[in-house]
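User: Sequence in, structure out. Go.
Assistant: Echoing your sequence, followed by the structure tokens.
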Amino acid sequence: MRLAHHEPLSLSDFPGRIATTVFTVGCNFACPYCHNPELVTATEGTPQLTEEAFFAFLEQRKGKLNGVCITGGEPTLHADLAGFVDRIRALGYAVKLDTNGSNPDMLGHLLETSSLDYVAMDVKAPASRYSDVTGNPYALALAEISIRLLAERDTAHEYRTTILPLLFSEVDIDNIACMLPPGSRYVIQNFVPTKTLDPSFVSARGFESGDLETIADHIRLHYPLLHISTRGGI
């Protein structure tokens, strides 16, 4: 696994768990608002966290932490992800995966082997604009498979979307929600400007709180488990 770094303690990345969050290198999407651009554009010379150092940390924190969130970048691009997850679970940690849904084969394997305790899948855009937003012509077809895989399994999961007025109208957001199975847990993450893959998005803004609540109230008519996050998203 190519690991970039980890956050030693997170109380918000893994629902119900006191977790550490580890970031993998590399992504096959180029979402302009991505706030981890260094993971998308990483080269072979980019500084990395070694697996040995990460597992030494997990050994030291047993009994104090009870979860590991694997995020990125896009973790499922790594062929050795399953073995990495197994090694974490062998230490007694629950595992959450953050994914863009672009590798349904890997996701399906992890679900079939009950290797994951929670999955958060980013649903990036309405179907008509999926390739445009992600920069990947295959993104929609792969995402649709992954959405279905999660819906068919018992593994706890959520779908989530980072939203901002510069990219998405209220109609767009409603159309994204319509891509999800009815009754799904859906999280809309209001864009928070920090660093972005496209530098012009640094000056962009998220939705005003009143507009955000209006959007949420409409979506909740069909997705009562909707949750609003102000933490921003990848």
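User: And one key feature?
Assistant: The domain at 3-229 is CATH 3.20.20.70 (TIM Barrel).
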